[in-house]
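Re: the request from the purification team.
They wanted to know what the chain is likely to look like in 3D before they choose a buffer screen. I agreed to run a prediction and write the result into the notebook, where they can find it.
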Amino acid sequence: MLIYLYRLSKIENRNKLIISTSLLAAVTMVAGSLHIPSPLGIPMHLFIIPLVAILLGPLSGATVAVLVLIVQAFLLGMGGITALGANALTLGLPVTLATYYSYKLLLDIDFRLSVFSATFIGAIMVTVTQSVILLIAGVWTLEVILATLVPFYLFIGVIEGVANVAVLSFLARVQPEFLSIEKV
């Protein structure tokens, strides 16, 4: 977060970025708090962080992720305080870096393809990071992760990828300057 604040201080028109970051943090807080039922009885949540990373950059995405996780842990009891570090690692830099640079890499090919692919890759990074944490902690076996966590996160990646394509395509039509905000 300190790197984010330092980089933010170097931006000339930072008010637009601060307002956009605040708005997307609120959207992330609300959307990430919604429970999507699953067959296992474990609620799934949309990440929204890939959308933030695409719009505002990887450091902004990671900062929003950490701030939202803190608020959700303390005010809503989601994730819990003891899991805050693992959750921040899971939704922080690995996801935002993978999402943002996948988006940039594929953008010259096709806008919608780049948005969908980057979002899906972000979901894969969440899956990989969380799987590694669960395996190291000895909480779940690889078989359990492959049977439960992976299919659900891939499903969320597809759903969120389609939603992000719709949202960003809409923004490109009605508010194209929002897509050109300086990214951090």
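For the purification team: The chain has one domain: 2-180.
Please add any questions underneath this entry.
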